[in-house]
Amino acid sequence: MHRQAKREQRPTEKWTPPPWGHSDIPGRYRRWRLRDFGPAAERIREFLVTDDYPGCYLWGETGGRKTSLAAAALIEARGNRPDRWGDFVTPYCATRTIRAVTDPAMNTVLRTWGATPFLVLDDLGKHRDTPHVIEQLLFLLHERYDWPERAQKTIVTANMDLDELAERIDPGTARRLSEGMVIELTCKEI
Question: 65: which residues sit within 8 A by CB, 6+ positions away?
Answer without folding.
Answer: 37, 185, 187, 190
